[in-house]
Design goal:
Elements (H helix, E strand, L loop, with lengths): L4 H11 L5 H26 L5 H21 L2 H9 L6 H16 L4 H8 L5 H23 L4
Length: 149
């Protein structure tokens, strides 16, 4: 059977299950909004007995802990199955990426498994985030020194 790329693409498109994009976007919006609402409620509550800066830090720590815990017991994946991109609110998505690698490699031991592979997914984010921050910082410093900013 000789089939060209266009014919194969047409065939594959006709057989592929169509994604409910609007439904997925609404679910991601609602779940992401719920995560952010929970974070705001926590910040307001922590703010009753801590400074604004400290309450913000504690919210981050709390969200990371809850996400890592839910990932470890297998609940976060079930939530993410329905929420889609809504669970990628930066801090929860990052915590899930790190903790899921740790859970997946725990059978290989703490050194060669968890320790060596914990940042498999999150490592590039850290590397390029820090690198971009350095580049932008240098550009900002130069522009500030030249009086442009």
């Amino acid at each position: 059977m000789d089939i060209n790329k266009k014919a194969y693409a047409k065939y594959a498109d006709s057989r592929a299950k169509k994604s409910p994009i609007v439904k997925d976007c609404v679910k991601a919006f609602l779940f992401g909004g719920a995560i952010c609402t929970i974070a705001q409620v926590l910040k307001d509550w922590y703010g009753t007995f801590l400074s604004d800066k400290d309450s913000g830090t504690l919210v981050g720590v709390t969200l990371i802990f809850i996400t890592a815990l839910l990932t470890g017991i297998g609940v976060f994946d079930r939530i993410a199955k329905h929420a889609g991109a809504g669970t990628l609110v930066p801090i929860t998505g990052f915590a899930n990426a790190v903790s899921s690698c740790a859970v997946d490699t725990k059978g290989e031991g703490f050194i060669l498994g968890v320790g060596a592979k914990i940042f498999t997914i999150a490592g590039p984010v850290i590397l390029y985030g820090i690198s971009a921050g350095v580049v932008y910082g240098v550009i900002y410093y130069i522009l500030k020194a030249l009086g442009v900013l």
